[in-house]
Design goal:
The chain has 237 residues and is mostly beta strands. The protein contains 2 helices and 10 strands, in the order αββββββββββα. It has helices at residues 6-12, 172-180; strands at residues 38-46, 55-60, 65-69, 79-82, 93-95, 104-106, 126-131, 136-139, 145-148, 153-156.
Length: 237
């Protein structure tokens, strides 16, 4: 009998493959939508193992506290304004309909009120390309242009922490600890490099799979490896 493959062990839901969220500072998201702009001050800038970018701790004048993705150039004591018609200034959060074309933005919402979904990693940014009455076209960090609801909110500025990926890990131990902070498995090994008991593709014949890579429709969970119900196979003619 073989052992459960990694996909099965992940699906089981054991703590080994669950993010250590109790160590995280909290959820970094825009505050609830308010009709009038609300001012606040940056109380602190902190590091969170669950985020690649530094986080800003904001205390608003109405007594509400929130955590935001810190834009590049933000410092303790700066004033932040959140609202649909907030001024276009570094760190402010406002609707896409009120952001001029060509403005650099980050932490862009996918739907109005979801707190921000796009351009959240360190050093990333998006850009407002064009606007119409019904939609706003935004250039994403991937290079893809996406049309969004004009009521979606975004933060002005580039996410802080750029250059993070330029520093090499230099040794496997550093990479292990960085991945372990988020409870990500490291290193990852391909199935053909495993033993026969660990994976259907494993065995002494090295990188020869020895069986079709298309999983059978009625295969059990332990055999669902390779191409899972592909739409097409073979060479494109």
């Amino acid at each position: 009998m073989g052992k459960d493959i990694i996909a099965q062990r992940r699906g089981k839901g054991s703590p080994r493959y669950t993010a250590l969220s109790f160590k995280f500072v909290g959820e970094a998201a825009h505050r609830k939508i308010s009709k009038q702009p609300v001012s606040g001050k940056v109380a602190d800038i902190v590091h969170c193992p669950g985020h690649s970018a530094p986080l800003g701790m904001i205390k608003y004048d109405d007594g509400e506290d929130s955590i935001m993705i810190a834009p590049d150039g933000l410092k303790v004591g700066d004033e932040i304004v959140s609202g649909k018609e907030a001024p276009v200034s570094l760190g402010n959060v406002l609707s896409l309909r009120n952001i001029p074309e060509g403005t650099i933005i980050s932490n862009v919402e996918s739907c109005p009120g979801d707190g921000g979904k796009f351009a959240r990693s360190s050093g990333t940014f998006a850009k407002v390309v064009a606007r119409t009455e019904k939609s706003v076209k935004v250039l994403m960090p991937s290079g893809k242009e996406k049309e969004l609801n004009p009521d979606c909110r975004a933060q002005i500025g580039t996410v802080a922490g750029s250059g993070r990926t330029e520093k090499p890990f230099t040794k496997a131990g550093a990479k292990y600890h960085a991945r372990h902070a988020r409870n990500k498995m490291y290193p990852t090994v391909c199935g053909v490099s495993m033993n026969a008991v660990d994976h259907p593709y494993g065995g002494k014949s090295s990188h020869h799979k020895g069986r079709p890579t298309i999983a059978d429709k009625n295969a059990p969970a332990g055999r669902k490896v390779g191409k899972i119900r592909p739409r097409r196979t073979g060479f494109r003619r």
